[in-house]
Amino acid sequence: MVKRKDVIHPTAQALMDCTIALMEKNDETPTSDQVLEVSGISKGSMYHFFEDYSDLVETAEIQRFSLFVDQMCGELVTFFKSIPDREVARTQMIEAVQRQISHKFTSSTFHYSSIFTQASNNARLRTKLLAQQDRLNELWIELFGVCAVKGWTRTEMDPRSASIIIQSLEFGLIVDQLQETQLSQRNWKDLVEQMVDNIFFAN
Questions:
Q1: pTM score, two decimals?
Q2: φ, ψ for residue 85, nearest 5 deg
Q3: What is residue 122's DSSP assignment?
Q4: Mean pLDDT, consecutive 10-residue segments, the chain of 203 residues?
Q5: Which DSSP symbol is given to 40?
Q6: In the structure, how many helices (H) and strands (E) does the chain have?
């Protein structure tokens, strides 16, 4: 965990930025030597801000996930609260979820899911991941609440259940990638529309 929690030191951020860039470039976790060589930062500085190299990788992974959360839902709640038109809101919701699916099509789905697998046996990573996952859950729950208040969906559905169901699409991609015949992006688009309608716009 970054030792200075209030403000991330520029050196710690530079190490995380370099780690994330190498992950995205090579679609795998870089070695510590690669990160230090590319960043130009010393090993001593790395251990000043992180407990060990795994701590740096975990923190970079979580920051990467956090950025995705921001891009995914950051402005949706404000938008939904201000927009009175149901169809416009529905279109925005569908596009947001499709971006989420598109993000997984263009990056390593198995790598993304492995963070959750690792967290089950890693208390430090689980603590970091939980904070971001809770934030994502609350955003979906709030979106569901806005839809319910506006009369767009059924109020009897549990908001947390709605949050979990819509996020389960991501892990559906993992199952699909194991199949010989995979769903097309058109299939996924249709599925997203059906799920959004059934959960958020059921009335």
A1: 0.75
A2: -90, 120
A3: -
A4: 59 95 86 96 95 93 80 71 85 82 56 77 89 86 90 92 88 81 88 93 91
A5: T
A6: 10, 0
